[in-house]
Amino acid sequence: MPQALPESAPIETLFDPTSMAYSENPGPQCLAIAERGPLVWYAPWQAWIMTQMPDIMDCWKREYLSSDFYDWEFAPPRPTEENWNNFEKALVGHSLLADQGHHRLVRRITAPAFSRNVVENIQRRLEPHVKKLFDEIGEPESFDYIEEVARHIPFISITAMIGVPEKYWPAMKRVTMTFTETWNPTISEERRLRAQDDSNKAIDILQEIIAERRKDPVDGDFLTTLLKIEAENEKFNEWDIITLILALIGAGADTTLVAQQWSVYTLLKNPDQIPLALASADAFANAFSEIMPGQATLKWALLGMPQQIWRFWAKR
To answer: Where are the alpha helices (DSSP H) in 179-280?
Structure first.
């Protein structure tokens, strides 16, 4: 009589990226899920996890997967154009991901908005706000880094980059915290609609800021540079600017929050590496690149974050 195969343990008992064990040493859990196969259904996320890098790269190259929320099998019906609100106009009608040709055009013509001069101006705006955060903390024996520092950085980064006047900060701060929920299939419809409402309010604010910047341009400013690009390219308009800013919020809010937490955590777990990382801003940037490769590194490099955090640590 053939012997029955042992029942596999539920995958969520082997892989839990929110657990302390994963934070301390993710390797064993990642290997456990990889042993299940190249494609694993993970019920807590209601999603498939692809475990092999060659397969992931192949998907990106061949575009098997869709970035369009409305392509999800459980998504609500795609709204028709006459029923679009501002959020849908930006994400459905002008999405950088919906039209690959337009996406490539936007990436090419907006390169001057990310020039060294513009980025340095952004960094100059950013530094006083980051310094203020640490000055307000002082030098206590301990403090909650996430609450006191980490959760503020994405908002500071984005408002400094765009040049958001202080009167708009409360509403813009809200959207940096909820924007990625606008297309999250694992949350309730009610929560997703609240996040979309936050985005609609933020778009109204962005339109006001853009109108103000049209009347009063600032040399070397991110928005002013985009408005100049708009004037020179008939296929690039105000909604492309709004969508680009929303894309930066989506790419930078969660990644910036997670990236800085992991950087601080990793250095504290490896104190012998702290002097090497603090040797210079470039040394810290290199250490950061090892800790958080990929998109998070790109985003922080753009906003000058490694240098800002390095300056804080160096002073301590």
So the answer is: 189-215, 222-232, 238-269, 274-277
